[in-house]
Amino acid sequence: MPAEGDKLPAGEVPQWRTRVQYAVDAEGHAGLRKHRSHEVEVVDHCMIAAEGVSELGIEKRDWKGMAAVEAIAASGSNDRQVILTPRPGARLPLVELDKPVSVMRVDEKDGGVHRVHGRAFVRERADDRTYRVGSGGFWQVHPKAAQTLMLAVMQGLTPRKGETALDLYCGVGLFAGALADRVGDQGAVLGIESGKRAVEDARHNLAGFPASASNRARSNRSSRAPASPRSTSSSSTRPAPAPASRPSTTSPASAPAASPTSPATPPPSPATSPTSPNAATRSAPSARSTCSR
């Protein structure tokens, strides 16, 4: 399903990519990796980068000591974020870009993403709701993709009041939130997600539903985050029974396909990938939503 605005006159390139990961060469120049290669091709501009990314001026800066620099320009707000991946033993540079940004860094030891300064998240919009996406977590890179996919899923499922839905790979709660709206107070949504930060964001994003609650339980690799009026979160290898009212969300880890448009961009973290929702409706209604980790 093509997104509105994708077709342009001949010779024009759509500037749609709101997240771009630049590789950095040994001299500190930002670029993109050549096709099927680790070699960095230095660029002065990424042609498909969204305006919010291009205006940061990543390509003009010296990034000595960095292995990669990811630029994020939220499409649902003016939030801008840069995530730095240092080379072993290197210090972070002073980040002075053409627009205000928050700065995160990838830890050399545990691979976690930690805040340096500014917000640890960006704010995105879909289905008339604001979603917090933290620590470089997954969100669709095309500015219209989240809304387009959400509408396609809702049209395909046609959820009804009082139904129960299961949202696998729920990420920060995009589809779970839309489902919760549509199944109503007497329905239930269960979302399953393996990423700890994604679960935290989903709980935050879906906290507006009445009487939402979250509990944490042990499990191998499943995480659940609340996604409906009354949601609880727990985790186990089999779905937790829906408590007594409302939808909730849970989703297992899966690795989405790498984007073919930017060789330098690695596939999004499985923990935050809601691109291919596996949602089921038409279950017996249940009273509460469950989210677990």
Structure in words:
- By secondary structure, this protein is an alpha/beta fold.
- The protein folds into two domains: 101 residues, OB fold (Dihydrolipoamide Acetyltransferase, E2P) (Beta Barrel), CATH 2.40.50; 147 residues, no CATH class.
- 13% of the residues lie in helices and 29% in strands.
- The protein has four helices and 17 strands.
- The strands form four sheets. A seven-stranded mixed sheet has the order 3-2-1-4-5-6-7. Strands 10, 11, 13, 14, 16 and 17 form a six-stranded mixed sheet that branches. A two-stranded antiparallel ribbon has the order 8-9.
- The radius of gyration is 20 Å and the shape is globular.
- The C terminus is likely disordered.
Helix and strand string, N-terminal first?
A: EEEHEEEEEEHEHEHEEEEEE
**Main β-sheet, spatial strand arrangement:** 3-2-1-4-5-6-7
Question: What is the number of domains?
Answer: 2
| Count of DSSP strands | 17
Mean pLDDT: 78
Key terms:
293 residues, alpha/beta, 2 domains, seven-stranded mixed β-sheet, 13% helix
Topology:
Elements: E1 19-24, E2 30-33, E3 40-42, H1 51-54, E4 66-73, E5 80-86, E6 102-106, E7 113-117, E8 121-126, E9 129-134, H2 145-157, E10 164-168, H3 174-183, E11 188-192, H4 196-205, E12 222-226, E13 231-232, E14 244-245, E15 248-252, E16 278-283, E17 287-292
Parallel strand pairs: 5-6, 10-11, 11-17, 13-17, 14-17
Antiparallel strand pairs: 1-2, 1-4, 2-3, 4-5, 6-7, 8-9, 10-16, 12-15
Helix pairs in contact: 2-3
